UniProtKB/TrEMBL annotation, chain A:
Keywords: Germination, Lipoprotein, Membrane, Palmitate, Signal
GO cellular component: membrane
Coiled coil regions in record: none
Compartments, record wording: Membrane
Organism of provenance: Terribacillus aidingensis
Protein name: Germination protein, Ger(X)C family
From TrEMBL, chain B:
Taxonomic classification: Bacteria, Bacillati, Bacillota, Bacilli, Bacillales
Transmembrane segments: 43-62, 83-102, 122-142, 149-172, 184-206, 218-238, 264-285, 306-324, 339-357
Keyword Transport: yes
Cell compartments where the protein resides: Membrane
Swiss-Prot/TrEMBL keywords: Germination, Membrane, Transmembrane, Transmembrane helix, Transport
Species name: Terribacillus aidingensis
Protein name: Spore germination protein (Amino acid permease)
C-alpha cells in the first residue's frame, strides 16, 4: 500500500510536466515594431510578423504580415492587434523598435515602460528613430532580400561594424534615461528612393528621453563615435582636406583607423563653468589619396592637414550636440562624480550649452598602402 | 537528532554550510537596499559591515569555546539559568521561524514575478518546503553533504554575473563620501543583517571536528567569502546601473542579465534565477533546521518527525497568508527586520559578556 502511494506520488510529480509555459506555437512573434503618433496625437503601433513557409528544401521564402492598431498605450494597442490574429501576439522577441519622429520628440519613456516592467519581454531590442513615419519604414520590403523581416536590423547591424552606428538597446539607454547629466544617441533612419529602401541617416541626439530633432549627420558619425570611445570592426573616415583643387576627388583623403585611444576629461573652470578636453589619438593608414604623390616628404604636411580638418569636424560635432542639449559624453555625470560641490552650483540643462568642450585630435600615419 | 551528537561534520563541511545558509534572498536585492540606504557609498558600508560581522563571528566562536559540547540552547540555559534560558530558547524558535517565513515568501514572490506567473504561489512554497524538509530530515551530516555538493553553484553563478560588466561604467561609483552619517549607519546595519547567519554558528560549530583555532579560521574564512561575494555583486550592479535607475530595480543582478546574450543560453536571467533557487533552498533549510532544533528543546523532545512537520506547517501557513498580497509580505519583512537586531546582535553580545563571568566563576571554583 505504502509503496503504491509512493509510486503514485512520484508519478504525479515527475510525469505531470510543466504547465506554466508560453509556447512558441501559440504566439505570433513580432520581430520589428513601429511606434507612431498620428496627426491627432493618437498612439499607433505597427508590427511586422514573419511567417516562414516550409518547403521541401528547408525554410522557404518568408512572407510577412503587417498589422496596425491604435490605442492609449502600447499594451492596449497590442490587444487591439490581437483581435485580428488567430494566436496571441507577443513582442517578447522584438529585435528592432522603430520610433516615428513625432513620437520621439515627445517623450519615449512612457511607450517603452512595459519593456522595463514585464520580465517576459526582452530588453534587447534596438531603438531607432525614423524621420517621418515609422510605419512607412517598416513596410518597406525590398524584393531582393531573402528575409524581409531582417532588412532593417541588417542595416543597423552592418553600420555598427563600420563604426557608423553604435550598439544600442533598451537596457543600455536605461541608465542614461534615468541619470542626470547623461544622454544618449540612437540611430536615425529615413525612407528613400520613393519608398523602396530605408537608409541609415546618422545618429539622433536625445535629451533625457526625447528626441531633440537634431542629428549627427552620417559623414560625421565615425569621428563622433571614436571620440566617444566606440569602434566597430572597421572605422574609415573620408574627409575633405583642401578646397579648389582640380579634379574634384584630389581634395579628399580616406583614412582607415587601425588603432585609437580616446579620453574625455572634464574639470570646473571659471569662464565657462566647465571645461572638457576630448583627446583622440588615431593611428591610421591612408586608404585613398587621389592626389597620387604620397611621398614621405608629404606625410608631415598631410598629417598636419588631417589633424586640422578632423579637429574642425569635431568642433562642428560638439557644436551640434551642445545646441541639441544632448550630453552624450556624460560630462555632467563626470562633474557630479568628481566635483560634487561644483555640480550643486550648476543648472545643467541651461549651463551645458555654454560649457567649453575642446577637441584635441592627433593623427599618426602608420602606413600609406602598397602603392607609392 | 539523537545520533547527531556523536556524528560530527568536518571543518570544510562547516564552511560550506555557513556559506550556503548566508546567501539567501539578500544576494538579489542587497545592491538596491544598500543603495537606498547609503547611495553610491553603499559598497563602502558593505565593507565596514563585513568587518564588523567578523567581530561577531569571533565573539560567537569564543562563546562556544567557553561551553564545550553545548549548542545554542545549552548555552542559553547555562548563561541565563533554566527559566530565562528556555524563554530565550523559545524566542529563538520564533526568530528562526520568522526568518524561514521571510525566505519562503520572498522566494515565492520572486519566482512568481520572474518565472512562473500562473503557478499558484502556495505550490511554489510546498515545492521548496519539500526539498528543504528532505535535506534536513537526515540530520546535520546529510545537510553538510548536500550543502557541500551545491557549493559548485556559487562559482558558476558568480561567473555568470560577469556578463553585467559589459555595460559597466566606473563613473557611477563617484562621487564618494556623499552619504550622510545616518545613511552610513543604515548601510552598515543592512550589511550586518545580510551577514546575520553567524547566529547559526551556534548550531553548527559545536558539532564540528577540529580544534577551536581551526574552527575559528574556517568560520572567519567562510564569512569573508560571503562578504566578498556580496561586494562583488554590489560592485557589478552599481557600475552597471546608474544610481537613479538602481532605485527602481529591486533585483538588479537579475535585471542586468536580461540583455546578456550568449550562444548557449538566451535568457541568462532566467537561468541564474533557477540556479539561485538552490541558495533559496539551502538558506531556508538552515533556518528550518534551526527552528526544528529549537522546537525539540521546548516540550521534552518527543518524536522528531512531529517536530519537523508542525514547524513546517506553521511556516507554510504564515507564508500562504503572506503570499496573498504585497502588503502582508512587507509586514513579515518589517517584523523580521525589527527582531533581527535582538537575536543577531544583542543576545550574542550578552552571551559573549556572560562567558567571561562564567570563566571567572570557574577559576574561582578551581582556586577555592
Amino acid at each position: 500500500m505504502r509503496k503504491i502511494a509512493i509510486i503514485l506520488l512520484i508519478c504525479a510529480i515527475v510525469l505531470s510536466g510543466c504547465w506554466d509555459t508560453r509556447e512558441f506555437k501559440e504566439v505570433k512573434l513580432g520581430i520589428t515594431a513601429a511606434y507612431d503618433l498620428t496627426d491627432d496625437n493618437i498612439y499607433k503601433n505597427t508590427i511586422l510578423i514573419p511567417n516562414v513557409q516550409n518547403s521541401a528544401s528547408g525554410p522557404g521564402q518568408e512572407s510577412v504580415q503587417f498589422l496596425t492598431a491604435t490605442g492609449g498605450t502600447p499594451t492596449e494597442a497590442r490587444s487591439n492587434i490581437d483581435r485580428r490574429l488567430s494566436s496571441t501576439y507577443s513582442p517578447s522577441q522584438l529585435d528592432v523598435l522603430l520610433i516615428g519622429e513625432k513620437l520621439a520628440k515627445k517623450d519615449i519613456y512612457p511607450y517603452i515602460d512595459a519593456f522595463y516592467r514585464d520580465p517576459r519581454l526582452h530588453l534587447d531590442a534596438v531603438i531607432a528613430v525614423v524621420k517621418g513615419d515609422a510605419e512607412q519604414a517598416l513596410k518597406v520590403v525590398p524584393k531582393s532580400e531573402m528575409r524581409p523581416s531582417e532588412y532593417i536590423e541588417g542595416i543597423l547591424e552592418s553600420k555598427v561594424e563600420t563604426t557608423s552606428s553604435l550598439e544600442i538597446n533598451m537596457q543600455k539607454i536605461g541608465a542614461e534615461i534615468f541619470e542626470n547629466g547623461q544622454d544618449f544617441v540612437a540611430p536615425a533612419m529615413k525612407v528613400g528612393d520613393g519608398g523602396k529602401t530605408v537608409s541609415y541617416e546618422g545618429l539622433a541626439l536625445f535629451h533625457e528621453s526625447s528626441y531633440t530633432g537634431k542629428d549627427i549627420p552620417y559623414d560625421h558619425t565615425t569621428l563622433f563615435l571614436l571620440m566617444n570611445n566606440i569602434k566597430g570592426k572597421v572605422a574609415r573616415i573620408t574627409t575633405k582636406l583642401y578646397d579648389g583643387k582640380k579634379p574634384q576627388p584630389t581634395n579628399y583623403v580616406t583614412i582607415h583607423v587601425e588603432d585609437y585611444s580616446s579620453k574625455v576629461k572634464s574639470k570646473p573652470s571659471k569662464e565657462h563653468k566647465v571645461k572638457t578636453d576630448v583627446n583622440l589619438d588615431l593611428t591610421v593608414m591612408i586608404e585613398e589619396y587621389p592626389a597620387d604623390d604620397l611621398s614621405l616628404s608629404v606625410l608631415p604636411k598631410l598629417q598636419k592637414d588631417l589633424e586640422k580638418t578632423l579637429t574642425k569636424e569635431a568642433e562642428d560635432i560638439i557644436k551640434s550636440i551642445q545646441e541639441a542639449n544632448c550630453d552624450v559624453f556624460g560630462i555632467g555625470r563626470s562633474i557630479y562624480g568628481h566635483y560634487p560641490d561644483h555640480w550643486k552650483k550648476l543648472d545643467w540643462d541651461k549651463d551645458y550649452k555654454d560649457i567649453e568642450i575642446v577637441p584635441h585630435i592627433k593623427v599618426n600615419i602608420r602606413s600609406r598602402g602598397i602603392f607609392r | 537528532m539523537a545520533n547527531d551528537s556523536n556524528k560530527k561534520i568536518t571543518l570544510s563541511q562547516m564552511g560550506y554550510i555557513y556559506i550556503q545558509s548566508q546567501i539567501g534572498v539578500d544576494i538579489l536585492n542587497l545592491p538596491t537596499v544598500l543603495h537606498k540606504a547609503a547611495g553610491a557609498d553603499g559598497w563602502i558600508t558593505l565593507i565596514i559591515g563585513g568587518l564588523i560581522s567578523i567581530v561577531f563571528v569571533l565573539m560567537v566562536v569564543h562563546t562556544i569555546k567557553c561551553y564545550p559540547g553545548e549548542d545554542l540552547f545549552g548555552i542559553l540555559n547555562s548563561s541565563f539559568g533554566k527559566y530565562i534560558g528556555s524563554i530565550a530558547g523559545f524566542s529563538y524558535y520564533v526568530y528562526f521561524l520568522v526568518v524561514a517565513i521571510y525566505l519562503l515568501t520572498s522566494y515565492g514572490e520572486l519566482i512568481n514575478q520572474w518565472l512562473l506567473p500562473e503557478t499558484p504561489v502556495w505550490l511554489l512554497y510546498i515545492l521548496l518546503l519539500i526539498s528543504a524538509l528532505y535535506t534536513i530530515s537526515g540530520g546535520l551530516t546529510l545537510i553538510a553533504k548536500v550543502f557541500t555538493f551545491f557549493a559548485v553553484v556559487l562559482f558558476f553563478i558568480s561567473s555568470l554575473f560577469l556578463f553585467g560588466l559589459a555595460d559597466a561604467k566606473l563613473i557611477y561609483f563617484q562621487p564618494m563620501g556623499q552619504a550622510t552619517l545616518s545613511g552610513y549607519i543604515d548601510g552598515i546595519s543592512v550589511s550586518i543583517y545580510s551577514l546575520s547567519s553567524f547566529v547559526l554558528l551556534f548550531l553548527f560549530l559545536p558539532f564540528t571536528q577540529g580544534s577551536h583555532k581551526q574552527k575559528r579560521r574556517v568560520a572567519i574564512g567562510a564569512n569573508c567569502i560571503v562578504a566578498l561575494f556580496y561586494l562583488y555583486t554590489v560592485l557589478i550592479s552599481f557600475s552597471h546601473f546608474g544610481s537613479e535607475q538602481l532605485q527602481h530595480i529591486p533585483q538588479p543582478i537579475l535585471y542586468m542579465l536580461r540583455t546578456a546574450d550568449s550562444p548557449l543560453i538566451t535568457r541568462i536571467d532566467i537561468f541564474v534565477l533557477t540556479l539561485w533557487t538552490v541558495f533559496a533552498m539551502t538558506a531556508f533549510a538552515s533556518y528550518l533546521y534551526g527552528a526544528e532544533k529549537a522546537f525539540a528543546k521546548i516540550p521534552k523532545a518527543k518524536k522528531k518527525i512531529i517536530n519537523v512537520y508542525s514547524t513546517s506547517l506553521l511556516v507554510l501557513a504564515v507564508s500562504v497568508w503572506g503570499g496573498l498580497n504585497e502588503k502582508n509580505i512587507r509586514m513579515i519583512i518589517s517584523f523580521q527586520d525589527r527582531i533581527t537586531e535582538y537575536f543577531t546582535l544583542v543576545i550574542p553580545i550578552i552571551l559573549f559578556l556572560l562567558s567571561f563571568l562564567r570563566r571567572k566563576d570557574k577559576q574561582e571554583r578551581a582556586s577555592s
